[in-house]
């Protein structure tokens, strides 16, 4: 929310988007428009002038934001939005599957990797690398959650393939009920590392049983969002 020139608004937006790419700017309005609104739907308000809160946090910044002001925005962006944003970006219905029949690990790898190959997410060597990585040491995270992945950053585009296995799939000496096949590209490596925070959150929230009980991507996403939005 600004009472400055359009050029200044665009510059501020550029600074914010570069610093926090997950930040979604819902609208840019004048002080008058803000004062006339009964409520604000956005998660928080960034303003270049002092204004009152309308049940949402307000961060006041200078036209050239200081590091402190950017950090204040970061506290609102990173704490509340990063994990949900990652969930929206890298998890989708096209890469969600419920395996409701007996299946072994190798068959699962072959089917998932073939789909990713056909869709252009990975090259042919990705499948062999996932198998090789699993042979070195189990990718079981714990509590029935497995995170198979390739030895290197072999994906062309980053995606997480989610598999729900109600009957369980033998995973070394354990059984996996929730499998997340990670295909991570070099270009998105640093950003995608935050995906691991999502899985750690699932463990901390003891969410495996609730997630494993889902039978559609919408159900899965609802439960997952509840977990990752608590922190």
UniProtKB/TrEMBL annotation:
Q: Where is the PTS EIIB type-2 domain?
A: 1-85
Q: What PROSITE patterns does its record include?
A: PTS_EIIA_TYPE_2 (PS51094), PTS_EIIB_TYPE_2 (PS51099)
Keywords attached to this entry:
Transferase
Residue span(s) of domain PTS EIIA type-2 = 89-227
Keyword Transferase belongs to the record: yes
Enzyme Commission number, as recorded: 2.7.1.-
The reply to whether Zinc figures as a keyword in the UniProt entry is no
The UniProt entry's GO biological process terms, in alphabetical order, are: phosphoenolpyruvate-dependent sugar phosphotransferase system
What the entry lists under InterPro entries is as follows: BglG_antiterminators, PTrfase/Anion_transptr, PTS_EIIA_type-2_dom, PTS_EIIB_2
**PANTHER family, A to Z:** CRYPTIC BETA-GLUCOSIDE BGL OPERON ANTITERMINATOR (PTHR30185), LICABCH OPERON REGULATOR-RELATED (PTHR30185:SF13)
Name the record gives this protein? BglB-family transcriptional antiterminator
Q: Which organism is it from?
A: Klebsiella pneumoniae
Q: Which gene encodes it?
A: mtlF
